[in-house]
Amino acid sequence: xxxxxxxxxxxxxxxxxxxxxxxxxxxxxxxxxxxxxxxxxxxxxxxxxxxxxxxxxxxxxxxxxxxxxxxxxxxxxxxxxxxxxxxxxxxxxxxxxxxxxxxxxxxxxxxxxxxxxxxxxxxxxxxxxxxxxxxxxxxxxxxxxxxxxxxxxxxxxxxxxxxxxxxxxxxxxxxxxxxxxxxxxxxxxxxxxxxxxxxxxxxxxxxxxxxxxxxxxxxxxxxxxxxxxxxxxx
Length: 234
Prior knowledge:
Rossmann fold
């Protein structure tokens, strides 16, 4: 059966922690020394909560930027003013626009884009996410009409409606969601009957043991190997 494989962007097609680490090194080059993996997980955790508030109109983007950074650093006893948090975000965003696909991902897309249909299904402000699409060069392998971004359509994962929008483009193909967020990607895919691959770089625990992805990958290499199996399976 033909397949339609949708990818999340952040922490799926590139390692989201890398721009964060580079920004941290700029702002805290003289210390303190913090457990970077744990700090980044806290940043992501508070970011997911605050992004929902933005989409529901309860928080502005600037407030979200401050909230997630202040909460994350606060867990390690570091207070950031709004001004410091926004300056950190500005530099972080610059580094995000310098992201690139790994050579392994480029090779994968080169080899398989003629064999299966790929798409993007991503949460985030439209302009911000489209800039990432361009930085990663995804339009080389993915048709623009197969890219669905929450900021464009006004609804966010895991809401079933955004999956239904993507589903219309997939027609009668077997649909797959590849993403890092258990709550947004895996739960959302489960609700609409899609298959899923959870790329769990940070080895986080699933929030709902009753929802199980078809596959879990703990690295980009594992994700690519799994995708090859999916595509080549009849």
